[in-house]
């Protein structure tokens, strides 16, 4: 095949991917970086007390103990995935770093990674999901939480508040 | 392999090793620039490829696989006993990283993979690309179905409907429910290509098979029909079996047409980089290859399942009788990550007075795939359920649960 002469037909139909998608996500990133550079006014703990969202469509919420996060996937992501048929949960005790894939969701022949924005140790998993994967579709931001993570104290970066996340998903929708 | 910087790339592997090809594919997924779009084509030697979240005991006739591999590995590769021959030769069992169900690969089947940014990904667009390639080769019956697979419509007659030839989801032969002659005349469409996906943070991977000239269509169903299926209840993903057919094209023609159509979509150069066997020297490929070959991945990645000879509260199906075992015999175990967490048995006493029931703690913490030779456990079974029962149970488990030594 490598030595084969190209036979690209002249009547090549146009199926090229829309190039504007790249610039649009670049814009979102730039906007987000500006947010990140705002002076920090609170401690790390206080910063994430309200529910926060990632660009990969996970949510995290810091518990009252100030160190244990609950992590799940957003309603937007759950609806985009379609019918979830299996969830691979991480094991309790697993040490994880921000950006790691800690599990996977299977829906419509797709295995999709679940990522963590937080470094630390998995201290609990939502075993209901193993038996009833549908809970992830029905209540992704409630009963369908994925796991609890005890943070190791490092800053959690790249998080959005609810309004920002909404704008972000609307951008994605616009593709 | 140096993953190239260009935005549109095309690769073809000369290896037929399914572990290597899937590892090359994984390396392309992990290492290629996040804004690039990549085509990868490969052909595997005979192998059964199960989905990421599937149960090999449920999807595969491991007994048949084991005996087929043993005979293929025997001297001369010919099974002399009972005049049986394994026409296919050794068959690899591989768990892939993407979702979906079980498929069979051999050298009459070409695998195609497209890796692209998630923002431009849809589940159908690259199946449509392959259908365009097939139609360019004259396969006018090919279309994408509602499961994102590619099928060929059957039936001799065109249905007289006007069909948009740019619509990759319908052909002049496509029957809709309203046609009122769905099954009888011409039969169901035959599946020629199955799709599966892997989505990571920055990348979306769509791969599919394409049956072109497999000589094994007649025997494949035997390998994919597990005799223990009626006794297993598993979490995870079940396969949906479909009637399959060959397209009847040469591998090279198909590969060329797919590469052309890919170039049409993305405007890249057509010259594919040929990936050779030596690529195992690339650290990431070697690591991925090891992970894929490890029995821990093949068997311990299995979602939780239970095995029970009798109906249970959770799984009330009537079980087919097993000739060698007493009809009242019960053997149960639960396995998590392929490791037995609980097991029990109960058998009618030989004098007919009541049953012997026992927790089989000696099975706890054993990996199901590692119990190669359940007969070796006979003494332990003896102590719990009596000699007659244990002998028959151990024999039956031996034949159905033991996995191939080289898997």
From TrEMBL, chain A:
<dbReference type="GO" id="GO:0005960">
    <property type="term" value="C:glycine cleavage complex"/>
</dbReference>
<dbReference type="GO" id="GO:0005739">
    <property type="term" value="C:mitochondrion"/>
</dbReference>
<feature type="domain" description="Lipoyl-binding">
    <location>
        <begin position="68"/>
        <end position="150"/>
    </location>
</feature>
<feature type="modified residue" description="N6-lipoyllysine">
    <location>
        <position position="109"/>
    </location>
</feature>
<dbReference type="InterPro" id="IPR017453">
    <property type="entry name" value="GCV_H_sub"/>
</dbReference>
<dbReference type="InterPro" id="IPR011053">
    <property type="entry name" value="Single_hybrid_motif"/>
</dbReference>
<protein>
    <recommendedName>
        <fullName>Glycine cleavage system H protein</fullName>
    </recommendedName>
</protein>
<dbReference type="InterPro" id="IPR002930">
    <property type="entry name" value="GCV_H"/>
</dbReference>
<comment type="similarity">
    <text>Belongs to the GcvH family.</text>
</comment>
<comment type="subunit">
    <text>The glycine cleavage system is composed of four proteins: P, T, L and H.</text>
</comment>
<dbReference type="InterPro" id="IPR000089">
    <property type="entry name" value="Biotin_lipoyl"/>
</dbReference>
<dbReference type="Pfam" id="PF01597">
    <property type="entry name" value="GCV_H"/>
</dbReference>
<keyword id="KW-0450">Lipoyl</keyword>
<comment type="function">
    <text>The H protein shuttles the methylamine group of glycine from the P protein to the T protein.</text>
</comment>
<dbReference type="InterPro" id="IPR003016">
    <property type="entry name" value="2-oxoA_DH_lipoyl-BS"/>
</dbReference>
<keyword id="KW-0496">Mitochondrion</keyword>
<dbReference type="GO" id="GO:0009249">
    <property type="term" value="P:protein lipoylation"/>
</dbReference>
<keyword id="KW-0809">Transit peptide</keyword>
<dbReference type="InterPro" id="IPR033753">
    <property type="entry name" value="GCV_H/Fam206"/>
</dbReference>
<dbReference type="GO" id="GO:0019464">
    <property type="term" value="P:glycine decarboxylation via glycine cleavage system"/>
</dbReference>
TrEMBL record, chain B:
<dbReference type="GO" id="GO:0017118">
    <property type="term" value="F:lipoyltransferase activity"/>
</dbReference>
<comment type="function">
    <text>Catalyzes both the ATP-dependent activation of exogenously supplied lipoate to lipoyl-AMP and the transfer of the activated lipoyl onto the lipoyl domains of lipoate-dependent enzymes.</text>
</comment>
<protein>
    <recommendedName>
        <fullName>Putative lipoate-protein ligase A</fullName>
    </recommendedName>
</protein>
<dbReference type="Pfam" id="PF21948">
    <property type="entry name" value="LplA-B_cat"/>
</dbReference>
<feature type="domain" description="BPL/LPL catalytic">
    <location>
        <begin position="33"/>
        <end position="270"/>
    </location>
</feature>
<feature type="region of interest" description="Disordered">
    <location>
        <begin position="162"/>
        <end position="192"/>
    </location>
</feature>
<dbReference type="GO" id="GO:0005739">
    <property type="term" value="C:mitochondrion"/>
</dbReference>
<comment type="pathway">
    <text>Protein modification; protein lipoylation via exogenous pathway; protein N(6)-(lipoyl)lysine from lipoate: step 2/2.</text>
</comment>
<dbReference type="InterPro" id="IPR045864">
    <property type="entry name" value="aa-tRNA-synth_II/BPL/LPL"/>
</dbReference>
<comment type="similarity">
    <text>Belongs to the LplA family.</text>
</comment>
<dbReference type="InterPro" id="IPR004143">
    <property type="entry name" value="BPL_LPL_catalytic"/>
</dbReference>
<dbReference type="GO" id="GO:0009249">
    <property type="term" value="P:protein lipoylation"/>
</dbReference>
<dbReference type="InterPro" id="IPR004562">
    <property type="entry name" value="LipoylTrfase_LipoateP_Ligase"/>
</dbReference>
């Amino acid at each position: 095949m490598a030595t084969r002469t190209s036979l690209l037909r002249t009547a090549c139909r146009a199926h090229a991917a829309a190039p504007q998608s790249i610039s649009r996500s670049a814009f979102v990133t730039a906007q987000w970086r500006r947010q990140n550079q705002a002076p920090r006014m609170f401690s790390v703990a206080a910063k994430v007390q309200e529910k926060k969202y990632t660009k990969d469509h996970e949510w995290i919420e810091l518990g009252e103990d100030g160190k244990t996060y609950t992590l799940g996937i957003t309603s937007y992501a759950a609806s985009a995935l379609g019918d979830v048929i299996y969830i691979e949960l991480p094991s309790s005790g697993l040490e994880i770093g921000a950006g790691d894939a800690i599990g996977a969701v299977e829906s419509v022949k797709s295995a999709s990674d679940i990522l963590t924005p937080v470094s630390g140790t998995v201290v609990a998993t939502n075993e209901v999901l193993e038996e009833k994967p549908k809970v992830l579709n029905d209540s992704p931001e409630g009963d369908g939480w994925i796991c609890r993570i005890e943070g190791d104290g490092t800053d959690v970066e790249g998080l959005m508040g609810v309004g920002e996340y909404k704008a972000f998903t609307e951008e994605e929708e616009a593709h | 392999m140096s993953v190239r910087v260009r935005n549109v790339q095309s690769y073809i592997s000369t290896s037929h090793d399914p572990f290597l090809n899937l590892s090359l594919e994984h390396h392309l997924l992990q290492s290629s620039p996040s804004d690039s779009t990549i085509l990868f084509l490969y052909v595997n030697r005979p192998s059964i490829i199960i989905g990421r979240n599937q149960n090999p005991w449920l999807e595969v006739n491991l007994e048949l696989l084991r005996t087929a591999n043993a005979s293929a590995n025997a001297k001369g590769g010919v099974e002399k006993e009972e005049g049986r021959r394994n026409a296919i030769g050794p068959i690899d069992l591989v768990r892939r990283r993407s979702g979906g169900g079980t498929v069979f690969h051999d050298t009459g089947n070409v695998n195609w993979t497209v890796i692209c940014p998630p923002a431009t990904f849809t589940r159908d667009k690259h199946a449509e690309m392959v259908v365009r390639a097939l139609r360019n080769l004259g396969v006018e019956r090919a279309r994408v179905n509602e499961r994102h697979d590619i099928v060929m419509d059957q039936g001799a007659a065109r249905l007289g409907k006007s069909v948009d030839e740019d619509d990759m989801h319908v052909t002049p032969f496509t029957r809709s429910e309203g046609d009122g002659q769905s099954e009888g005349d011409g039969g169901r469409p035959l599946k020629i290509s199955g799709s599966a996906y892997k989505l990571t943070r920055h990348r979306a991977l769509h791969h599919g098979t394409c049956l072109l000239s497999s000589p094994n269509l007649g025997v494949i169903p035997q390998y994919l029909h597990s005799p223990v299926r009626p006794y297993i209840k598993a979490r995870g993903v079940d396969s949906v079996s479909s009637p399959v057919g060959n397209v009847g094209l040469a591998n090279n023609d198909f590969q060329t047409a797919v590469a052309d159509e890919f170039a049409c979509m993305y405007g890249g150069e057509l010259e594919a980089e040929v990936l050779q066997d030596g690529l195992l020297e690339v650290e990431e490929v070697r690591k991925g290859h090891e992970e894929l070959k490890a029995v821990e991945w093949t068997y311990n990645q299995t979602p939780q399942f239970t095995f029970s000879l009798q109906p249970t509260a959770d799984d009330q199906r009537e079980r087919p009788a097993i000739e060698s075992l007493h009809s009242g015999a019960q053997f149960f175990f639960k396995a998590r990550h392929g490791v037995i967490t609980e097991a029990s048995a109960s058998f009618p006493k030989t004098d007919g007075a009541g049953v012997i029931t026992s927790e089989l703690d000696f099975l706890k913490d054993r990996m199901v795939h590692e119990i190669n030779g359940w007969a070796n456990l006979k003494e332990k079974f003896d102590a719990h359920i009596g000699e007659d029962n244990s002998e028959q149970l151990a024999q039956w488990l031996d034949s159905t649960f033991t996995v191939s030594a080289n898997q």
